[in-house]
Amino acid sequence: MTRLHGRTAIVTGAARGLGAGIAQALAEDGAAVVLADVLPQVNDTAAALASAGHRTLAVHLDVTSEENWHLALTTAVQSFGEVSILVNNAGITINKDFESVSIDEFRKILDVNLLGAFRGMQAVLPSMKRAGGGAIINVASTTTDQILSIAPCYGASKSALANLTKSAALHCAEQGYGIRVNSVHPGTHATPMVMGDGMATEHPAARAIIEAIPMKRMGQPLELGRVVAFLASQDASYMTGAEVFSDGGAVIT
Asked: What percent of the chain stands above pLDDT 90?
């Protein structure tokens, strides 16, 4: 498919996992993709896509740094043209319950998961306006609806991100920018964050996760990527401020 041909995208947290799957889906749909991450593995991920014939490049991006955002955006525009797709995927979690987690740990999660996306949206807005419109997709989580006692700060950050998405969507619509802002809410996917270091799906811990999913399997990163590509395309031209769940039916149980 080439429905994103001529578009420039930035994907944060793109070195691996969901970010890599999203970058692949956007590239396969014709976009030029800037893969951004603090992990050096992002260079290999971008190179693999380039070797498959896609227009990609890797940039170092710490989403907590406004200077990093400026440099990443400048590189993207100089390399491929004005940015019209932004995917705020970078995220972290700390598995500590409400009594155990510290204020500093909570601040760190908010700085990446919420304020990182906020910085990104503010950074790319002028470029999207010059491009005549665009699409922002913020990667939230099913924890906006499924409360987990082991990750209260992660869930709070993603719920706030979903709300921020709606506020940004309303603002851009009211201003007539032609910029749509939506959130995707992935359930359990087979990523390093979920699987750890090489845990197979046959592992008892993995099997327990899978059995709790109505579809009885984990999602694959490319599956979420294709949802994001749809939201970035004109096929979703009347969608803004939406929450799109891709979770194998987990939230409806």
From this structure: 81
8-246: what CATH class? alpha beta
Q: How far apart are CA 253 and CA 212, in angstroms?
A: 9
Tokens, residue 100: 């155990």
Average pLDDT on 130-154 reads: 95
pLDDT of residue 193: 67
Delimit the domains of the chain by residue range: 8-246
What is the pLDDT at residue 198? 52
| pLDDT tens by residue, 234-251 | 999 999 999 999 999 988
Asked whether 119 and 164 are in contact (CB, 8 A), the reply is no
C-alpha radius of gyration, the chain, whole number: 17
Other Cβ atoms within 10 Å of 149 Cβ, number? 8
Q: Give residue for tokens 């970010």.
A: 19
Q: The tokens of 195 are what?
A: 């699987």
Q: CA torsion sign, 14 to 17 to 19 to 25?
A: positive
> How, if at all, do strands 83-88 and 56-60 pair?
unpaired
Dihedral sign for Cα atoms in the order 242, 181, 65, 188:
positive
Catalytic positions, please? 154
- For residue 196, the model assigns a pLDDT of 59
Q: Are 88 and 138 in contact (CB under 8 A)?
A: yes
pTM as predicted: 0.93
Q: Residue 200: pLDDT above 60?
A: no
